Amino acid sequence: MARADRPALSTGPAEDAADDTAAAGTVDEPPGAAAARRAVEAVWRIESARIIGALTRYTGDFALAEDVAQEAVAEALVSWARDGEPASPVGWLLATARRRAIDQFRRRSALDERYSALADRLGEGGASSGAEPAPEDPDELPWDPDVIEDDVLALMFVACHPVLSPEARTALTLRVVAGLSSEEIARAFLVPVPTVQARITRAKKTVAAAGVPFAVPPPEERRERLGTVLSVLYVIFTEGSTATSGDRLLRTDLAYEAIRLARTLAALLPGEAEVFGLLALFELTAARFPARTGADGEPVLLEDQDRRRWDRSAVRRGLAALGRATAVGHGLGPYGLQAAIAACHAEAPSVAATDWPRIVLLYEALGRIAPSPVVELNRAVAVAMAVGPQEALRIVDELAASGRLSGSHLLPGVRGELLTRLGRTAEARSELELAARLCRNTRERSVLLRKAAALG
User: How many angstroms separate the CA atoms of 230 and 219, rounded?
Assistant: First the structure.
């Protein structure tokens, strides 16, 4: 991962009215309301994707499913505070949301064919004639709670459909698949809440206008569409592992959301090598999180990290996922290769003992199948460790001449390191100061400035 050595958001259940109500937990909140809010948040956090997926399948309308799910959550915050948490919270939310969906169709037209079809599908005969629908059993779930159904997978493919912009895909995935609120997404990416809400609203309208079906794509389309899903998860995790801006190096809330979604995807698609490659990359990178910042939140460089603090359970999970990617595929793809690089770090006892020549080879392979200036910059860092700074500086200078990383703090940061190792102190200080000016993350900027100041 280009910025690999770079815990969770509050779990508000839904946006709009539910956002405001759920986020209103204050010190003078009545005990019943506080308990209800915690219960709703917990259920929504775990089951939101399956709830919205089931509602979309029943109604045939993705936007309507999301809206009535929000209404059910808002009603739960009031009802559960008054009556206590129901025996089956998920069943209660589904039953309530379905009734709201029927109300929506009824308001559109009492004789609407879609409402009739929905009533028949739900076994509520006579509803189209104006009779009240028969009450549903809120203790019955439309899925086996021990089995993840295709509804979640279909929801992922809808949220990450290529007709949407990258920003819209990310926002919609975090909203409907991860269950985060607009406020949480805005806080994570440092954008205004109205911007996030507008992206989500436009995304749902675009999905409806494009007639995107709520279904897992057929096999011939799945691989191409799966790439979009994986790229969205990659963007989310990358922002979490090293925030592009703000005053925190890590946004582990986002990183762990991406890991959770990648695990879900791996369970749904056990034969896709790159899904396991991505999961391995996430696990192996996140394993270093405990050692990447000090008590004051300042970044700790790789060579200074206490490797005893690395999460060895995450390392084992990552290596197992990498092994699965190797077993089910025909050679590692871009995510698998990045995971293999992360594995070299995870298995090494120190920076000096790391297999840098192998990392160079892996970056060369990655550059051939997924070329990018950031991959080339990372290869230069590996070359510096394996061969020496002079050869690495040649690679970096070629990148600088190409202008492909213009405006990024990464290139002058690496160039400053290389010039420092070559004893070209004045040039190194100038490059590090330039990198600090370009860097939008205050924690990273402070490290760059300290390095520049240390050069005198």
Answer: 16
